[in-house]
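Lecture 7 notes: from sequence to structure.
We start with the chain below.
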Amino acid sequence: MFAATAAADAASSTNCDVIAFEATSKTMSKVRISGGGRCNVMHDITKPLPQILSSYPRGSKELRGLYTKRFTKEDAYEWFTSRGVVLKTESDGRMFPVTDNSQTIIDTIMQAAIRAGVEVRTRSKIESVEWINNDDDDMDHKNNGKFAISILSRSTTSGEKEMCKEFFDALILATGSFPLGHDIARSLGHNIIRPVPSLFTFDTKDLVQDGGAFHGLAGLSVPHARLTLTVSDEMKQSALDKDRTNRNSNDDEGALATTKTKKKKRKKKAPVITQEGPLLITHLGISGPATLRLSAFAAREFHAVNYNCDVRLHFCPMYEEGQRQLGSTGGSEDILMESLWEMTRLIPKRRVSTGCPLFMKDNAEENVFSGIETTQQPNTAPIIPKRLWAALVSSSSIPSELVWGEASKAMIRSLAINLTSFTVRTTGFSSFKEEFVTAGGVSLKEVQLTNMESKIIPGLFMAGEVLDVDGVTGGFNFMNCWASGFVSGSSAAEYCDQLT
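Predicted structure tokens for the same chain:
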């Protein structure tokens, strides 16, 4: 709808008609459920562009020009605020309407579309699209170069279905990650990077079931954790095998996979994918920003092994960094071992399981290192919640009644390992709230990013998640939709104007 509005605004001085087709009875369903129904419109516009782009696992390089020359984050902010939407920025950078209601955004876009003259047809499903390119002199060239669109409509009164065909000079695909958009693009000659889930939480059946380390800990969070996935050769080979099995003749990724298997390369150290941020334990496993970011940046790797693999969890990377700044050296395990062993001298009579003896200043923005505390100081907080700490102590084979002074080096070493490299075995995934994002779509190699027009079919424009672009949670996916939608809409209007 955003792209249609931009097209209608740009075509206001011409005789072009803009029609938006929606298969369901309501438009912008994804806007409605985003951000828990509040609509995370975009991300903090005061953040530098490189930081914004780093939140796109796929498409970051391609979006740079779009965000700097065609439709900037400031342009997006101005578009909404100039139409009466008051936006607020939360501590994590997410921007919402002050109403905390996604209907505010939906109404704003719909009102802009109506004022611009967009004709909205709901309950109208696009069944197929054909680009007419008749070279035969004996053929009727009336519709040559146009798009023949077959539309299945349902009457709002009788409910009866009716199929019709209409012809258009330009077509904008803004179908999100729904298969229909990819099917249409494929039918017009585009390659589709096979979509796989992105932005999901991890199911960890063994950890949350009775007897598991996370059992009964749902709702607990860690302020700053690090998740690391090691991409094994088995994982990479599995990804290639799946691509060969599932690809079709127009699957760009499948063709790439076939090419890769022909090349013999030297064995290299297994690459790792790492993300940091707050971590949340749920009744199914783990969630939170760190988990969601890793799921996005390693979307294909997780899919390749059917979401069954080991992830390493570091509960206190900021504490480790603070110790390094104070002069500690060695690996993560060694640094935590040194700090924990010091407890045997400082608090020898306190039980190990009582609570985490390592503290950080309570500053969400900086997570400044505070150090080892024998008594808790104001504005400090233990880096690990009490119940989670007790669970990690138990997982380290340390008796619940054991005091620090009686702990052996082997016990402390085991605890240090769990704090810095706790093994999380994923057994599946769950969608994040009601939102669903995919990695994949129309190959960006086949789209001119300056105007979002297809390099294969003139007059075909694409916007949003139909493309192989996706961002992490925080308003980044909508920012892509607004920018690519605005550019594709205005470019489509310009294309039609040149035809007249």
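Points to note: Residues 244-250, 252-262, 362-379 have pLDDT under 50 and may be disordered. Residues 154 and 474 are 36 Å apart (CA to CA).
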